[in-house]
Design a protein that fits this description.
Number of domains: 1
Largest sheet: 6 strands, mixed
Radius of gyration: 21 Å
Number of strands: 11
Strand order of the largest sheet: 1-2-3-9-6-4
Number of helices: 16
CATH superfamily: Cytochrome P450
CATH class: Mainly Alpha
Shape: globular
């Protein structure tokens, strides 16, 4: 990428991207077309105003998200074209901060998401998961794997890491589902976000003198030292809580794929040593979300692949497209458990790399280990095409996963 402002030819057409609901691991056909048409396109999403650039090649995606000339903070006050009607940035939210403020805020909770911090919850997470599987086996088949295991497990783990009491987990789950769905309308989703924010405001405010290792205690201590504001701390807590529960949908897609293609599950059962690499490949392959996430604004003219992006233009990147770039991942439509290297960007890249990536990977490893080993006959109870997937969801996943064994 360069800052050259030499004319680079006609603009690509603006493509309407309806972002329709998709089932299973079906790859978005509109995104596939955009990838074929060129590395830099223009799109219009269902909500917001105008159009935005879309960058899809792996190297370009990593370059854009790591380039300070593309700003998240500059989105504030802009009605950028977007997927959800309620997906409007809040001032001070970590997702819409640029360095150094973004770096300062993330530093306040970094200890909880390091290898040591995540390992701190491994034993408790394994215990929670074993308890859920004990109950699954006690109840017997058939069962809804989402309702019995894939839903409650990530909720319990992220609440454990956040310092949210067990009695409040149900409320957290309800708020998160409303925030992550566009099906209920903007007012309902924004109301849920306000309620979750008020909850974390109270929780963090009570822990300004805390010395605990959970996120609420770390944020409370940082507020007490005037390193972050309470508003910033609450915004970060909401983002982390919502992101933690996204594992439900991601793992639902993962197991839908494994059980739809039993040869994949059987290989992981018989070759447990390949599971870490296989999970990376599943993370690369699974289309985690609908359309695209958060936009950025170009602060100056920047050239990407011969296309001039002007100062003030909104820009999206697609990590899903980057993970299917054939220049980086040969035969990208194939699930290859032996793929190496596998530098996928399922958790993002650059300053806004998902802070919970290591935790999500731990949870995925535990789910694969426990479910494949303890329920060796696990299989779908219905044909794969009859598994109901969530409608109007920003993060894709099955609403229920009927299984038997």
């Amino acid at each position: 990428m360069t800052g050259d402002t030499t004319p680079t030819g006609p603009l690509p057409p603006v493509r309407h991207w309806p972002a329709t609901d998709l089932d299973g691991t079906d790859f978005d056909p509109v995104l596939s077309e955009l990838m074929r048409e060129g590395p830099v396109n223009r799109i219009r999403l269902p909500n917001g105003e105008g159009w935005a650039w879309l960058v899809t090649r792996y190297d370009d995606v990593r370059a854009v998200v790591n380039d300070p000339r593309f700003s998240r903070e500059a989105v504030l006050g802009r009605q950028v074209t977007r997927l959800a009607p309620h997906f409007i940035p809040d001032r001070g939210a970590v997702g819409f901060l640029d360095p150094p403020d973004h770096t300062r805020l993330r530093r306040s909770v970094a200890a909880a998401f390091t290898s040591k911090g995540v390992e701190r919850v491994r034993g408790r997470a394994r215990g929670i998961l074993d308890g859920l599987v004990d109950e699954l086996l006690r109840q017997g088949p058939p069962a809804d794997l989402t309702g019995a295991v894939l839903g409650p497990f990530p909720i319990a783990v992220i609440c454990e890491l956040m310092g949210v009491p067990a009695a409040d987990r149900h409320a957290m789950h309800t708020w998160t589902q409303l925030i992550l769905s566009s099906a209920h309308g903007k007012e309902v989703s924004e109301g849920a976000k306000r309620e979750m924010s008020a909850y974390f405001g109270d929780l963090i405010g009570l822990r300004e003198d805390a010395t605990g290792e959970d996120v609420a205690s770390l944020l409370g201590a940082a507020v007490g030292r005037d390193e972050v504001t309470l508003e910033e701390a609450v915004g970060l807590a909401v983002l982390l809580q919502i992101g933690g529960e996204a594992v439900t949908n991601n793992s639902g897609q993962m197991f839908h794929l494994l059980l739809s293609r039993p040869e994949l599950a059987e290989r992981l059962r018989s070759e447990p040593e390949i599971r870490p690499g296989a999970i990376d490949e599943l993370l690369r392959y699974i289309p985690h979300r609908n359309a695209v996430g958060l936009s950025r604004i170009a602060l100056e003219d920047v050239e990407v692949r011969g296309v001039r992006i002007r100062a003030g233009d909104p820009v999206y990147v697609s990590y899903l497209a980057a993970n299917r770039d054939p220049g980086v991942f040969p035969d990208p439509e194939t699930v290859d458990f032996a793929r190496s290297p596998n530098p996928h960007v399922a958790f993002g890249f650059g300053p806004h790399y998902c802070p919970g990536g290591m935790l999500a990977r731990l949870e995925s490893e535990l789910l694969v280990d426990v479910l494949l080993d303890r329920v060796p006959g696990l299989k779908l109870a219905v044909p794969p095409e009859r598994v109901p997937f969530r409608k109007g969801a920003l993060i894709r996943g099955p609403e229920a996963l009927p299984v038997t064994w």
